[in-house]
Amino acid sequence: MLLFGGDNTNVIRGRIYDVIVYPTALTAAQRALLAAHLRSENGI
Question: Which residues of 17-26 are buried (b: 16+ CB within 10 A; e: fewer)?
Fold first, then answer.
């Protein structure tokens, strides 16, 4: 998937909107799992 431009622009904006407007949608457990996943991807 292309990250910028074309038909994906609205999708990206929608995802950014979701992240900004609905941060509390994630439970503490989900945030912990996401953080662990990101750390493992970055090799930290």
Answer: eeeeeeeeee
